[in-house]
Amino acid sequence: MNDSCSRRVLVIGLDSAPPELVFHRWRANLPNISRLMETGAWAPLRSTVPPITVPAWAAMMTGLDPGTLGFYGFRNRRSYAYDALNIATSDAVTHPRVWDVLSQQGRRVAVLNVPQTYPPRKVNGLMISGFLTPDTTCNYTWPAELKNELDAITGGYEIDVRGFRTENKATLLDDIHRITGKHFAAARHLLHTRPWDFFMTVEMGTDRIQHGFWKHFDPMHPKHDPASPYRDAIPDYYARLDREIGKLLAIAGPRTTVLVVSDHGAQPMLGCLCINEWLMAQGYLALKNAPASPRRLTPDDVDWSRTAAWAEGGYYSRVFLNVRGREPQGTILPTDYETLRTRLAAEIAQICDDKGVPLNSVVFRPEDVYSQVNNIAPDLIVYPGNLAWRSAGSIGLGSHISYDNDTGPDDANHGEYGIFVASGPGVPAAGGIEPLDIRDVAPTILRLLDCRPPVMQGKAAF
Questions:
Q1: pTM score, whole prediction
Q2: Helix extents (H) in 203-274
Q3: Each residue of 135-190: pLDDT tens digit?
Q4: Cβ distance 187 to 248 under 8 Å?
Q5: What CA–CA distance (Å, rounded) separates 66 from 71?
Q6: 233-252 and 169-193 helices cross at what angle (nearest 10)?
Q7: Can you give the residue ranges of every domain in the chain?
Q8: Residue 129 in contact with residue 101, Cβ under 8 Å?
Q9: What is the dihedral of CA 89, 153, 176, 137, to 10 degrees?
Q10: Are 61 and 288 in contact (CB under 8 A)?
Q11: In 105-204, which ranges are continuous DSSP H helix?
Q12: Which CATH fold topology does 3-269+414-448 show?
């Protein structure tokens, strides 16, 4: 057996971990990650458009962009009906992910907490589904009996923090640390007790703590309080993660190639662009009645006979046009579609805040950023303030600008770049290298394991 066939690969995912913090600001306080950087290669990792958990982790593990995968966020249109939105579960991922390829080639895999793996699928090994799993009462493991083992090891397994958009910061911090502890306890146990060639675990706590506590440590945040008792919550958590990673490395041993990756980055959230409020003010969106208080826009609120466009909020915005012959009550002639879409994109890019300062929002057409556009994509994808701002899709806010998030307290938006660190057999000690694309991770892993990949858009890093 040649050396490449005897290798093992351990992938440690830190959802939302930004290179600015890991590679620079806090590197000295992260000795285990720093050691991997010193002995291997590291780079910023360009995320998907949009840079959010779904579709980014799926793109990382398939080597394909969201347009090819055919989903563009957590919720996607299943038809052109106004109320036809589906959650992108694992069933939405129809292309093979790394562990599928390896399972088919007889390699043993362990997949823990990777987003968009619920419901879990049969693999040659084990799977614990991650983000978007409803709760632990459902069947969230393969094989099913693994649930009982996890409960015994952790004192009751937990998948994710519930209700992280809260002002009860003490409880939130306790929840994040408790659940993180259970995740790493499960990972250590399975590393010890199961045979594996590929082991991947993802921690969502990085994302949760950044959304909950960013303003407490970052002087650049508009709501920063330098005297906050939580000013060290995020750096202390990263230090704890580094210690947990050190324990995994000790179990995995020196013959294991290790990757530490994130699906996107993070940054302070400066405010919210209330996209549907703006569309109403510009005459693109008409309501049947003005809402008495802020709330989510529903199809029943809209006078579709007078509406040209509407939008969904989130860490980015999806704008949809009401096209005749496509939507049930479309108003835009197909011959006018491209002219209107181009004009709307230009107008959104010029939106200013409440003081008249341009937000510098970025607007994408799906066909310009994806190799293919499958299923039903948004007509426009909008980064408010180039991701320094969030999109609020609610109505009844009274302004197109808000400095409070419409879905609850939230301090951070996502960033375009995550992290990539690799060290061990098969990885050159190259230090910092040029930025990689998130689609490069899957072919890199498969090359390290000497497995031929299916057709992928990414390229192996080495």
A1: 0.97
A2: 205-217, 233-252
A3: 999 999 999 999 999 999 999 999 999 999 999 999 999 999 999 999 999 999 99
A4: yes
A5: 6
A6: 10
A7: 3-269+414-448, 271-409
A8: no
A9: 40
A10: no
A11: 146-154, 169-193
A12: Alkaline Phosphatase, subunit A (3.40.720)
